[in-house]
Amino acid sequence: MGMMREDLSRPAAQPGDAGTRMLLLSHQGGLLSEGVQAQLAVPAAQLGAAVARHFAGAASDAKLVGALPFDRHASAHLLAPRRVRDADTANAWLHCMARQAEATRGWSLQAEPARAGYEAAVAQAVQRLQQGHGLHKLVLARTLHARSATPISPWWLARRLAGDPGVLRYVLPLPVQADAAPAWLVGATPELLLSRRGASVVSEPLAGSAARGPDRAASEARAAALRDSAKDLGEHRYVVQAIADLLAPLCRQLRVPATPALHATASMWHLGTRIEGELKDASPDNLPQTSSAALAALLHPTPAVCGTPRAAAAEAIAALESVPRGFYAGAVGWCDAAGDGAWHVALRCAHVQGHEARLFAGAGIVADSTPQAEAAETRAKFNAMLHALDIPSALFPPDR
Ligand SMILES: C=C(O[C@H]1C=CC=C(C(=O)O)[C@@H]1O)C(=O)O
């Protein structure tokens, strides 16, 4: 992209300054941001206006990068970087940092909660959904707390997550207390919340999942079963409907396919719908409502990570989950001064700090969900990260 390629073979690639870098990288492209000129810390409802104000005084090639936490009332964490590098440089940086990192070993692993506890929470959720109270869907997550004898490098981990064309990898430096070790959210997400280019907007929500099989035939059979599953199609429809309802008033055209397609990652199948719209007003005057950051903040959190209706589902999640989500199930991405940008749902990730990693996985619960199947789905969603961290599968037996 016309940028000088930095020599990263013996560079200033010191772990000390890595905390000011953020990475977004997929097979289609990506970026590595460096340094911090300014920060934006406002909740989702104020984000569109704050981003527009920020860009009003900024250079035309300025960008903001960062994340929205799951809780839309908590502060987003957006940075104005000093420099933004292209995907090739991002790859070179990862390669270099991964080479310097020590491989992890000596793992211990604790499920929070273990399988039985998660199944009990799903059973309570199903009861709430069957009783009505206006709640139709909610997404319940659980976590695995992993400790390594060696420090965990977020760059090493991001490098280990390479190779899956169905995901975008991300490394997000997180705000921490002054005396705390640096912390990151590192993941490989399959889900696009929202991208904007000029007047064109795209959202590609995923909901409804099946683990890929041990061989091709089994994998195809599971994909076919997922495509026909009334439970998964119902779970998916809530997400598409919520996104379409929020985008429709802002778009002169909105294309919403009637049936979902299959989306594959290396370990999972998902139902996905590509929603495409044309904004009515993509002018600079309308940036507070229609920048990619404003649109992401409008849609977030969708029923793919929260539920329907949103406020009641968020309340039920707070009551039924034991570990705060932080930036898991939030959104990571970028926005430029013209309002263009892309925001991805922060899934399939781990919160990494020192020797510890906390892995997150959730599943959409509807009235006809079964606790055993939802627990199995979260197990399958942990797999990519467990493998990338090199955590022996014996530490996560089926009853956990
Ligand atoms: C909440 C997660 O996945 C979401 C994305 C795809 C499929 C999902 C599902 O089938 O439940 C979830 O909505 C997660 O991976 O933690």
SSE map:
Layout: E1 22-26, E2 29-34, E3 38-40, H1 44-56, E4 63-68, E5 77-80, E6 83-85, H2 87-100, E7 108-112, H3 115-130, E8 137-147, H4 154-160, E9 168-174, E10 183-189, E11 192-197, E12 200-204, E13 206-211, H5 216-228, H6 230-247, E14 251-255, E15 261-264, E16 268-272, E17 275-279, H7 287-290, H8 292-299, E18 307-308, H9 310-320, E19 331-336, E20 341-345, E21 349-353, E22 356-365, H10 371-389
The structure holds the ligand C=C(O[C@H]1C=CC=C(C(=O)O)[C@@H]1O)C(=O)O.
Ligand ISC is lined by residues 139, 141, 191, 206-209, 270, 304-305, 347-348, 361-364, 381.
Walk me through what this model shows.
Its EC number is 5.4.4.2. This is isochorismate synthase. It is an enzyme of class 5 (isomerase). It holds the Pfam family Chorismate_bind. With 400 residues, this protein is α+β, with helices and mostly antiparallel strands. The chain has a single domain (18-391), classed as Anthranilate synthase (4-Layer Sandwich), CATH 3.60.120.10. 31% of the residues lie in helices and 30% in strands. The protein has ten helices and 22 strands. Helix 1 runs antiparallel to helix 8 (292-299) and helix 3 packs across helix 10 (371-389). The protein is globular, with a radius of gyration of 20 Å. It binds the ligand C=C(O[C@H]1C=CC=C(C(=O)O)[C@@H]1O)C(=O)O. The ligand C=C(O[C@H]1C=CC=C(C(=O)O)[C@@H]1O)C(=O)O binds next to strand 8, strand 13 and strand 22.
